[in-house]
Automatic annotation (TrEMBL):
The chain crosses the membrane at residues 66-85. It comes from the Bacteria. Residues 1-19 form the signal peptide. This is DUF4129 domain-containing protein. Keywords: Membrane, Signal, Transmembrane, Transmembrane helix.
């Protein structure tokens, strides 16, 4: 009887041991599947991390290139700015030269005109002196200086403009002096009147020359 119970006890132990082994085997297989499942699930995440790393590398490359790009843009802008400034300076210089050239020409022309008026007026006044001192019976000498007087008066009328007050005043003074000289035989106090008329003509001429001299100085 004892032997039978002992045999049954060993059989029971063997069955329990086999069952435990089977359970352990099942658990091992299940654990193995779970691990494989986790590994297979984690693979996409690993791939995703690698893609992010690639994007980061591209961004880092752009960051490295930014200083060069900025320097290139600044360089191009500097060249453009220098071109615009140089072009503007060239235009301004050209305009200034044109203005200066025109002012020089105008100044020279005005100075030449003043010189011509002064020279012609001098001839006119000189002839009036000769005519006022020549006796009436010396026809040839009278005609000689009278011709010079008329020529000088005509030239002054061409050089001067009666639309400008200071120039018209000179024309009128010359005309009055010429009329006085040509009628000297009929004029009482002839010499005094000639002297007054000549002095007035000279004063009017000085006023005219002073006005235009100031204009010349303003052009320089």
């Amino acid at each position: 009887m004892k032997k039978l119970l002992l045999l049954m006890y060993f059989i029971f132990i063997s069955i329990l041991s086999s069952a435990q082994t089977a359970v352990d085997s099942i658990n091992y297989e299940n654990h193995k599947k779970e691990v494989e499942t986790k590994i297979s699930i984690n693979l996409p995440e690993t791939l995703k991390i690698e893609n992010i790393g690639s994007d980061l590398n591209e961004k880092n490359e752009w960051k490295d290139k930014m200083p060069w790009i900025v320097a290139l843009i600044i360089g191009l802008l500097s060249v453009l700015a220098n071109y615009i400034i140089a072009n503007q300076l060239r235009k301004t210089t050209k305009e200034n030269l044109n203005i200066e050239y025109k002012a020089t020409i105008a100044s020279k022309n005005r100075q030449d005109w003043i010189n011509e008026v002064r020279h012609t007026l001098t001839e006119f006044l000189t002839s009036t002196l000769y005519l006022s001192n020549i006796e009436n019976d010396k026809i040839d000498e009278n005609n000689k200086f009278l011709e010079k007087l008329v020529f000088a008066k005509s030239k002054l009328e061409l050089l001067l403009s009666d639309s400008k007050t200071e120039q018209k005043d000179l024309i009128d003074s010359v005309e009055n002096l010429l009329t006085l000289i040509t009628n000297k035989s009929k004029e009482p106090n002839f010499e005094t009147k000639v002297r007054i008329s000549r002095d007035k003509t000279i004063q009017v001429a000085r006023t005219l020359f002073n006005i235009h001299w100031e204009k010349i100085k303003s052009l320089k």
